[in-house]
Design goal:
Elements (H helix, E strand, L loop, with lengths): L1 H4 L5 H18 L1 H9 L16 E2 L2 H4 L11 E4 L10 E4 L2 H16 L7 E4 L1 H4 L5 H13 L5 E2 L4 H13 L5 E4 L1 H10 L8 E4 L12 H12 L5 E4 L8 E3 L4 E3 L4 E7 L2 E5 L5 E8 L8 E10 L5 E6 L14
Helix pairs in contact: 2-3, 9-10
C-alpha cells in the first residue's frame, strides 16, 4: 500500500488504495474494527471509498489508535484548552509523515530547497508534541538557508530578516499562528509583495476571535501581499491541505474531503452543500485514514473545499482554522 500511496494517478487507483487501507485497518486496529462492527460495516460489504465508515475524531482523545504490532516513533498531541482532554496521535512511522508533508509542500510551493522558510509559531513552540512544529522544523532544515528559522517573540529580528530578504529579492515563506502574525504586523508593517504568508490558525484566547476574512484583510494590508495563504491540518492527520487565498483549499492526491449530513453522520452530501467534514488521509495508514471531524465545510465540484467553522459543542484546537 505504501508503495502506491504517493503515486495516485486516477480515481480508480484512489478507490483501490482506500479499499486496501480499509481492509488493513479493519484487521489491525482493534478500536476501528469494533466501531465498524457496531455499525455493521466490514470490508466484505464495502465496494467504494464512499461506503467506508468514518471514525469520529473524538476517539483520538479516548483510545490509542495504532496498528497491531506497531509501536509509536513519535506522539503528536493537540493543544486543547485548560482542563480539556487532548487528542493523541501515535505515529508509527515518522518517515511516512515526512514524505507526506514534503511531497505536499513541493506540490503546492515547489522545492523547499529554493525557499527561505520562516516560522512565527510561539504557542506551538511553547509546548511539546506539535505536529506543525515537527513539519516546519523539517522544512527549515531541508531549506538549508541560513536565514530560515523560528522566531518566538523576537519580532524585531523577524522584521530585520524580512527587510534583508526583501532587499535581496528573495521570495520567502512565513508560517504564522494567527495571533502571532497580527501582533507582529501591528508593530512592524512591511510592504513585501513577494512574501508568502501561510496562516496556520489559532487565536487560543490571545486576541478576540475574528472571522477569517477580517484577519486576512488586516494581514494583506500589513504585509502588502495580494492573498494570505492557509494550511488545513490537525494532530490527527499526517497530511495537509493548502489554500493560496480566499479560504479555498486543495488537498494532495492521497487526501480527500467529503461532506456529511450534520444530522445523519452516515449520509454524505453532494458537492456544493455545506455540512460536516470527513477526511480521508491515506498517509494515516497505521492509525486511521477515515476520520469524521468536528469541522464544518463545503466541497466544490473541482474537489476544492472551504472550512466554515466548527460545531458549537466542540473545543477549538490550535491547528484548526478560525471559527466563522
Amino acid at each position: 500500500m505504501t508503495a502506491d500511496l504517493f503515486h495516485i494517478s486516477s480515481p480508480t487507483t484512489f478507490n483501490r488504495i482506500c479499499l486496501e487501507t480499509f481492509e488493513f485497518q479493519y484487521e489491525h486496529i482493534a478500536v476501528y474494527r469494533k466501531y465498524c462492527d457496531l455499525i455493521q460495516k466490514s470490508p466484505a460489504h464495502v465496494n467504494s471509498y464512499l461506503e467506508i465508515p468514518f471514525l469520529p475524531i473524538e476517539f483520538f482523545k479516548t483510545h490509542e489508535l495504532i496498528a497491531q504490532g506497531k509501536t509509536q516513533e513519535v506522539i503528536f498531541s493537540s493543544s486543547g484548552t485548560t482542563g480539556s482532554t487532548t487528542s493523541k496521535h501515535l505515529v508509527a512511522s515518522k518517515k511516512l509523515y515526512e514524505e507526506s508533508f514534503f511531497r505536499a509542500f513541493k506540490q503546492f510551493y515547489g522545492a523547499v530547497e529554493d525557499r527561505v522558510i520562516l516560522a512565527l509559531l510561539p504557542s506551538y513552540l511553547e509546548r511539546e508534541g506539535s505536529s506543525l512544529i515537527y513539519m516546519v522544523d523539517a522544512l527549515i532544515k531541508e531549506s538549508k538557508r541560513k536565514e530560515s528559522g523560528f522566531f518566538l517573540h523576537n519580532h524585531q529580528e523577524l522584521y530585520d530578516t524580512l527587510s534583508s530578504l526583501k532587499q535581496a529579492g528573495e521570495k520567502p515563506i512565513l508560517f504564522g499562528v494567527t495571533f502571532g502574525l497580527l501582533d507582529f504586523i501591528e508593530q512592524h508593517p512591511i510592504a513585501y509583495p513577494d512574501l508568502t504568508v501561510i496562516e496556520t490558525g489559532g487565536m487560543k484566547g490571545r486576541r478576540k476571535e475574528m472571522i477569517r476574512e477580517e484577519v486576512h484583510e488586516i494581514l494583506s494590508t500589513g504585509f502588502q501581499v495580494q492573498k494570505i495563504h492557509s494550511e488545513y491540518g490537525m494532530t490527527e492527520l499526517l497530511s495537509q491541505g493548502y489554500s493560496k487565498g480566499d479560504g479555498i483549499f486543495y488537498a494532495p492526491e492521497w487526501m480527500k474531503i467529503l461532506i456529511r449530513d450534520p444530522n445523519d453522520p452516515f449520509t454524505l452530501l453532494e458537492s456544493g452543500k455545506s455540512g460536516a467534514i470527513n477526511v480521508i488521509d491515506l498517509a494515516n495508514i497505521y492509525s486511521c485514514s477515515f476520520i469524521a471531524t468536528q469541522d464544518l465545510g463545503i466541497q466544490y465540484p473541482d474537489t476544492s473545499f472551504k472550512v466554515l467553522g466548527r460545531f458549537d459543542n466542540s473545543d477549538i484546537r490550535g491547528c484548526n482554522l478560525l471559527v466563522q
